[in-house]
């Protein structure tokens, strides 16, 4: 009798286990949310405000699964939804550019965990922010200006000088958050220059000018002649006043 009872209980347990649904499709629960992109400069400064990620892949794992169980692309508004889920534990995740190393070939994973304890729930997860790296020439702003060259003639009084457009003069642009220069350009025949495709950020644009020699006629030195500028999200064109350089 005891043996019969044991097998009856065992059969009931096995039947119950086979009928119990695990995490996955087949239920009435929904996970929904939005994915937005935050652009980063080469110095990993945030550029502008986040905007919807269009057609970005959002992945989901069921329970303790180590594999990707499903994925959904985001809409034009960055929205995604996983529907018809059973009660249980889920993890949604997306891939993002690194936030520590610029142009790292490996992506990082941003994830959120969700638990459904009931049969019909909707979980609206926090907006997922993924990151995108922009080089300095991935923007839409452009900077223009001009450079003049004042030449002081030798063996003549200091008032004797000639001011002309500085042809083929180097102009530099530097991110104020970085040590090195971003790029360099040369002026046209009329002394003008254009720096195209600049992303938002804070910059120093400059050229070099000779300093008047001291009375002992030691070697000339160069100093920077420039301007600090800020390129905003809505900036399309910045015109810089003329840089006046000198030659002795």
Keywords:
single chain, 248 residues, mainly beta, Immunoglobulin-like, 5-stranded mixed sheet, 18 strands
Description:
With 248 residues, this protein is mainly β. The chain has two domains: 22-133, Immunoglobulin-like (Sandwich), CATH 2.60.40; 141-247, Sandwich (Immunoglobulin-like), CATH 2.60.40.10. It is 7% helix and 53% strand. The chain has one helix and 18 strands. The protein has one helix at 2-19; strands at residues 25-40, 46-52, 57-62, 70-73, 79-85, 88-96, 108-116, 122-124, 128-133, 141-152, 161-165, 170-175, 181-186, 192-198, 201-210, 222-231, 237-239, 243-247. The strands form four sheets. Strands 1, 2, 5, 8 and 9 form a five-stranded mixed beta sheet that branches. Strands 10, 11, 14, 17 and 18 form a five-stranded mixed beta sheet that branches. It has a four-stranded antiparallel beta sheet with strand order 4-3-6-7, with no helix packed on it. A hairpin with a 5-residue loop joins strand 1 and strand 2. The longest helix has 18 residues, at 2-19. The chain is rod-shaped and about 100 Å long.
């Amino acid at each position: 009798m005891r043996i019969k009872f044991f097998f009856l209980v065992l059969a009931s347990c096995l039947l119950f286990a086979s009928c119990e649904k695990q995490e996955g499709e087949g239920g009435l629960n929904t996970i929904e949310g939005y994915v937005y992109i935050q652009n980063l400069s080469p110095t990993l400064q945030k550029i502008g405000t986040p905007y919807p990620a269009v057609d970005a892949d959002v992945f989901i794992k069921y329970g303790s699964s180590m594999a990707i169980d499903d994925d959904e692309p985001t809409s034009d508004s960055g929205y995604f939804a996983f529907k018809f889920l059973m009660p249980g534990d889920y993890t949604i995740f997306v891939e993002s550019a690194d936030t520590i190393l610029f142009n790292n070939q490996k992506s990082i994973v941003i994830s959120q965990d969700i638990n459904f304890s009931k049969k019909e729930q909707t979980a609206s997860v926090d907006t997922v922010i993924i990151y995108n790296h922009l080089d300095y020439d991935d923007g839409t702003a452009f900077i223009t200006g001009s450079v003049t060259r004042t030449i002081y003639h030798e063996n003549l009084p200091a008032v004797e000088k000639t001011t002309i457009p500085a042809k083929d003069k180097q102009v530099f642009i530097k991110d104020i958050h970085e040590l090195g220069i971003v790029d360099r350009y040369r002026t046209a025949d009329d002394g003008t220059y254009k720096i195209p495709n600049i992303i938002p950020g804070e910059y120093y644009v400059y050229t070099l000018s000779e300093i008047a020699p001291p009375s002992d006629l030691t070697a000339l030195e160069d100093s920077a002649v420039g301007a600090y500028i800020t390129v905003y999200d809505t900036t399309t064109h910045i015109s810089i006043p003329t840089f006046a350089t000198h030659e002795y």
